[in-house]
Amino acid sequence: MRTALTPRDVAAVDVRLAETDELLARAYPGDDGSRQPVHTVYVPADRYAPELPAVWGRAALAAVDAAGGVEAVAVAAGLDDGLAAAVAPRVRDKLAREPIEDLRIDFEDGYGDRGDDLEDVDAVRAAKRVAAAAGAGFAPPFIGIRFKSFEAATRARGIRTLDLFVTALLEHGGLPDGLALTLPKVSTVAQVEAMADVAAALERAHGLPDGRLRFEVQVETPQLILGADGTSPVARLPLAAPGRISGLHYGTYDYSAALQIAGPYQSMEHPAADLAKGVMQVAVAGTGIRLSDGSTNVLPIGEHAPEAWRLHARLVRRSLERGFTQGWDLHANQLPTRFIATYAFYREGYPEASARLHDHVAGTSGAVLDEPATVRALAGFVLRGVRCGAISRDEVAADTGLDERVLAVLARPRLAEETR
C-alpha cells in the first residue's frame, strides 16, 4: 500500500512530542494498585493508645446493638430489607475485626497549643505507641500523624513534631508500611514544596530511601483552589512535589468557614464543597494521587442518633457515587454507617460489574460493549469492594474466574508491565 508520508515525517512528530511523552509518563503514572482505606479516623494525640481501634469497634457495636442491631440500623439508614440483610453480617465482622482502616493521630486542631514541652512528650509517646501496635500486629493498616500547618505561626512547631515522631519511630522498630503523614491548611504550592524538602531532609538524616516519606495535602483553603494569579495551585502540586503526595483530603469546615458559609450550612454537599472537590478531582486525575472527602460533625449519639446515621450514610454514599472512595470519621458511632453505606454501594454494583467482567474475560458480548477504560473501572470497583470486605474473594472467583492479582492488573494494565 502506498502512503504519502515518509519515515522522516513520522520521526519529526516523535521529536515534536518527546516532551509530551515524557510528561505523560512522569506525571500521570496512574494509580499504583495498592489498597486505599475507605476512611480516616482523626483522634487528638493525647487520646491515642494502641487499643483505640478495638475500643472504637466495641463502642460502635454497642451503639448498633442498642438500636436493634446492624440490620435495623441499615434499614433505618435507607437500605431495603434484602440489602440490609446482606451487609449486616459483613459490617458486624468488620467492626469486630478491623473497625479502623486509617488512623490519624492529630497534633493540629484536635490537639491545639499545649506548649512545646508537652507536645514534644506527646509526639515521642505517640511514636512509641504506634511502634508497639505495629510490632504486635494490631495497628490499623494505615496510621500516622497530622502535624501543625506550615503557616508562619505554627511552621516550626509542625516540623519539630514531625521530626520527633519519625525519629522516635525509627528508634523503636522502624516505619510502619502504612505510615501516613498529613500536612494541613495548605494554601500555596510553596508550602508543599517546603514539605517535600523537609521529607527529603529527614530521609537523608536517617538513611531512608528517597521517596519513603510521602504525605497527604489537606485542601482547606480557597487559595489552593484558585490562586491570586487566577490559576489553580492544586493542579500544580503533582509536578511541584513529584512522587511525594499520596492524597488530597478535603477539609469541610475550614474550607466552608473561609468562604463565610454560615455554620448550619457548612456541609460536604454544599455547592462550594462540590466545586472545590471537582477541581481536586480534575487536578490529580491520572497522577496516582488519591482523593478523600471530608467529614460531617453531626454525630449519631443520644436521641438524635437515627437521624445522624441516616445523614452520615447518605453522605458516604454520595461521596462514593462521585468518585471519592474515602472520607473522614470523627466518632466511633459513625463507623457502622461508614461500612453499611460502603458495603451497600459495592454489593449493589457487584452483580452487573462481575457479569461484565466475566463476559470480557470470556470474550463474549453482553448487553454493554465494554472498552478498555470501562474494564479498568469495573475491575477497580470490584477490587475496592474486595479489599474493604464488602465482597469476598470466593465470590469473585466463582462469578468471574478472576483472583485479586488479575483484578489488579485489569484495573491498572501498567502493573503487568512493571511486574514482568
Question: What this model shows, in words?
Answer:
The protein has helices at 7-16, 18-27, 52-66, 70-76, 81-97, 116-136, 155-171, 189-206, 222-225, 233-240, 252-258, 271-284, 305-321, 335-362, 372-388, 393-400, 404-411, 414-418; strands spanning 39-44, 102-106, 142-146, 179-186, 215-219, 245-250, 290-292, 327-329. With 420 residues, it is α/β, with parallel strands linked by helices. It has two domains: 39-345, Alpha-Beta Barrel (TIM Barrel); 349-418, no CATH class. It has an eight-stranded parallel beta sheet with strand order 7-6-5-4-3-2-1-8. Strand 4 (179-186), helix 8 and strand 5 (215-219) form a beta-alpha-beta unit. Helix 10 runs parallel beside helix 12 (271-284).
- Report the total helices: 18
Shape: globular
How large a portion of the residues is in β-strands, by DSSP E? 5-15%
Tally of distinct domains: 2
Low-confidence sequence ranges: none
The chain-level structural class is: alpha/beta
Order of helices and strands: HHEHHHEHEHEHEHHEHHEHEHHHHH
What is the CATH architecture annotation of the largest domain?
Alpha-Beta Barrel
Largest sheet: 8 strands, parallel
Gyration radius, in Å: 23 Å
CATH level 4 superfamily of the largest domain: Phosphoenolpyruvate-binding domains
CATH fold-level assignment of the largest domain: TIM Barrel
The strand line-up of the biggest sheet is: 7-6-5-4-3-2-1-8
User: Mean pLDDT score, rounded?
Assistant: 95
CATH top level label of the largest domain: Alpha Beta
For the termini, the CA-CA separation is: 36 Å
Q: Helix amount, in percent?
A: 55-70%
